[in-house]
Write a structure and sequence with these properties.
It is a single chain. It contains 23 helices and 25 strands. A ten-stranded antiparallel beta sheet has the order 11-13-14-15-12-17-20-19-18-16. Strands 3-2-1-4-5-6-7-8 form an eight-stranded mixed beta sheet, sandwiched between helices. GO terms for molecular function: 3-hydroxyacyl-CoA dehydratase activity; isomerase activity; oxidoreductase activity. It comes from Astatotilapia calliptera. Belongs to the short-chain dehydrogenases/reductases (SDR) family.
């Protein structure tokens, strides 16, 4: 299927000839409305003419395309964007291509030579892009191309001014890629090699003729298309070849010792190791870069010896050699005790998002409730002391850097419902140590007892970055493996918001790691802000299953397994997707705002309901529309009163699958603060719509126009058809997935 730019508005700077002309023609040929910008100056920035831009516009229009000319300097960025808005009403794509040359050896470069290059290339791209930025943010779409050069990447004699500006554009693009990501604004950089007015001054004529601009334009079109998700990339392109570049860094070498000054002689003596690219790392962002510095600080403080970067531990005499499974496996950690009462149970429940706003939560929040209970996942709290109290540091054969320890997976199994008060004793054992190459995995088994009675069992799977390569086995029969979910739509979806203070609240249950509360500590770990505890997300997901499939009965809970994938920021919403198969509920947890998976390979095992027949899947199981209605229900809880004022109607939905009615929903935005009902509804809907699950999703995602769906018979409407005009208030604003 060919890539179309129909409906998109594209600005190309410096489009009067060479690469810019080729870009403009190519975008227009595929349906884009194009602003052809060219000042009409010569290659050194002198003069001005409208002829170049006009000629390209004429070429586009002669082929039936849409284009207008703009003759302003890129330093007048607002004027360029205003031309787009006046002519076509929007701006979707900016290709920063305009450029000049003033080549001089460095000693002969004047202030004017330097300033003109910076003004046109770097400042011009900044001003044009800044003028377009808010328009792109508001429409949640934008594609930006910055044009660097091999001279900027590698340097080139006689082009100090040009090289500095071109590499500056790469830094600008990298930051815009980060800031624009959440608004669907992508920014990429190209370093093209093509015949043009600029390259003909530095390349032989026959080479200039062979390196045609049309061999570069297709990459620009792809990077600017809505299907392309590339962001923050740097590409060299020319002659039909495209290559992506990335940074590479040596493993490095620590050249200072604890409590001693750092000397240049030490650097001289280890220079070969500092510059050795064997087993080089490839940091992709500033967080990965900073993590190495944090590791260095830790290693110097803990070891005090000159040594390699911790990431190189497996390759040389560092941390990897400190892992000896024959000594570690089977070692028991000192027992820990945990005394608690109802206060700790309630505090934990609040920490994993329970609230008095939900009456079903009261049994976990009020000690006077007749069914007062402890949430099953509280079982991780007594056992985590084995991790938090530094027990691992005392284990022979585990010489590890604790700044490199990550919580990889967690398994919890209950043998009886947890008490709401008492004294528990936990005994931890190193079950196994695995060599994953890039790191080591430590399996820590923790049995927790009330007196002599086994209450629960935890398995912590801990990943130690950079501690692999010691020649150990890669897998273990002792590990509780994650299990992927079924390949079908989930049977149920629950969306729950965390609060800005969620991590601050959860840590009161005993995980005092400053990573979850101290911004400066989080920054050292590579995070822009303190992150939520993985075990907090774990608790959210578990209680979603407990409510959805076990009627909030903690005695039904048997076990849970999760793999921690990505961090959650406090304030984000957790979306738990659930698939029920027998007494096992597979789960996957995402951050709703980013769609990033945070818990994977996860499941909850339940005990069967005593005396009950096997549970049926909830009505509508396996339907994509479940996600939309779950979100609508959540939004009604938040802003239902406002919706009632705007809409004042009751909408009925009949969702079909394979021609048969599969689910029924009623959105009541007429009474009280609004409500969402699943299944039969006691009242009467003002308008009822019948549509297939697939077509419903097409409508919600904007791929199918509701009017077209109605006239084609895909959407059937009964009742007050005029009320269907108010659907946009519900679906567009309150069902964004």
């Amino acid at each position: 299927m060919s890539l179309s730019f129909e409906g998109r508005v594209v600005l190309v700077t410096g489009a009067g000839g060479g690469l810019g002309r080729e870009y403009a023609l190519a975008f227009a040929e595929r349906g884009a409305s194009v602003i052809v910008n060219d000042l009409g100056a010569d290659t050194k920035g002198g003069g001005k003419s409208s002829a170049a831009a006009d000629k390209v516009v004429e070429e586009i229009r002669a082929k039936g395309g849409k284009a207008v000319a703009n003759y302003d300097s890129v330093e007048d960025g607002e004027k360029l964007i205003q031309t787009a808005l006046d002519a076509f009403g929007r701006i979707d794509v900016v290709v920063n291509n305009a450029g000049i040359l003033r080549d001089r050896s460095f000693a002969r470069t004047s202030d004017l030579d330097w300033d003109l290059i910076q003004r046109v290339h770097l400042r011009g791209s900044f001003l044009v892009t800044r003028a377009a930025w808010n328009h792109m943010k508001n429409q949640k779409f934008g594609r930006i191309i910055m044009t660097a050069s091999a001279a900027g990447i590698y340097g080139n004699f006689g082009q100090a001014n040009y090289s500095a500006a071109k590499l500056g554009l790469l830094g600008l693009a990298n930051t815009l890629a980060i800031e624009g990501r959440k608004y669907n604004i992508h920014c990429n950089t190209i370093a093209p090699v093509a015949g043009s007015r600029l390259t003909e001054t530095v390349m032989p004529p026959d080479l200039v003729a062979s390196l045609k601009p049309e061999y570069v334009a297709p990459l620009v079109l792809w990077l600017c298309h809505e299907q392309c998700q590339e962001n923050g990339g740097l590409f060299e392109v020319g002659a039909g070849w495209i290559g992506k570049l990335r940074w590479e860094r040596t493993q490095g070498y620590i050249v200072r010792q604890k409590n001693q000054s750092m000397k240049p002689e030490s650097i001289r003596d280890h220079w070969e190791k500092i510059c050795d690219f064997t087993d080089a790392t490839k940091p992709a962002n500033i967080q990965e870069s900073l993590q190495s510095m944090v590791s260095v600080l830790s290693q110097v403080e803990s070891q005090g010896d000159v040594g390699v970067n911790p990431a190189a531990a497996a390759a040389s005499a560092g941390l990897g050699s400190g892992i000896d499974p024959t000594k570690a496996v089977g070692q028991k950690l000192p027992p820990t005790t945990f005394s608690f009462n109802h206060t700790q149970c309630i505090l934990y429940a609040l920490g994993v998002g329970m609230s008095t706003k939900d009456p079903d939560h009261l049994r976990f929040l009020y000690e006077g409730h007749p069914d007062f209970s402890c949430l099953p996942t509280f079982g991780v709290i007594p056992s985590q002391a084995a991790m938090m109290d530094g027990g691992l540091s005392s284990v022979p054969g585990l010489n590890i850097d604790f700044t490199q320890v990550l919580h990889g997976e967690q398994y919890l199994e209950l043998y009886k419902p947890l008490p709401t008060s008492g004294k528990l004793t936990s005994e931890a054992t190193i079950a196994d140590v695995l060599d994953k190459g890039s790191g080591a995995v430590i399996l820590l088994d923790v049995n927790t007892y009330s007196g002599n009675e086994l209450v629960c069992y935890n398995q912590f799977s801990v990943f130690v970055v950079g501690a692999g390569g010691f020649g150990g086995k890669r897998s273990s029969e002792k590990a509780k493996p994650p299990v992927p979910p079924p390949k079908r739509s989930p049977d149920a979806v629950v969306i729950d918001s965390t609060t800005r203070d969620q991590a601050a609240l959860y840590r009161l249950s005993g995980d005092w790691n400053p990573l979850h509360i101290d911004p400066s500590f989080a920054a050292m770990g590579g995070f822009k802000a303190p992150i939520l505890h993985g075990l907090c997300s774990f608790g959210f997901a578990a209680r979603h299953v407990l409510k959805q499939f076990a009627d909030n009965d903690p005695s039904r809970f048997k076990a849970i397994k999760v793999r921690f994938v990505k961090p959650v920021m406090p304030g984000q919403s957790l979306q738990t997707e659930m698939w029920k198969e027998g007494n096992r509920v597979h789960i996957q947890c995402k951050v709703k705002e980013t769609d990033a998976v945070v818990l994977a390979g996860a499941y909850v095992d339940l005990h069967g309901a005593s005396g009950a027949s096997p549970e049926n899947l909830s009505q509508g199981g396996g339907l994509q529309s479940e996600l939309v209605f779950a979100e609508i229900g959540r939004r009604i809880k938040d802003v239902g009163s406002e919706l009632v004022k705007k809409v004042n109607a009751v909408f009925g939905w009949e969702i079909t699958k394979d021609g048969k009615k599969a689910a029924q929903w009623t959105i009541d935005l007429k009474s009280g603060s609004g409500s969402l009902h699943k299944g039969p509804y006691g009242g009467k809907a003002d308008v009822t719509m019948t549509v297939s699950d697939e077509d419903f999703m097409e409508v919600v995602q904007g791929k199918l126009n509701p009017q077209k769906a109605f006239f084609s018979g895909k959407l059937k409407v009964r009742g007050n058809i005029m009320l269907s005009q108010k659907l946009e208030v519900i679906l567009k604003d309150y069902a964004k997935l």
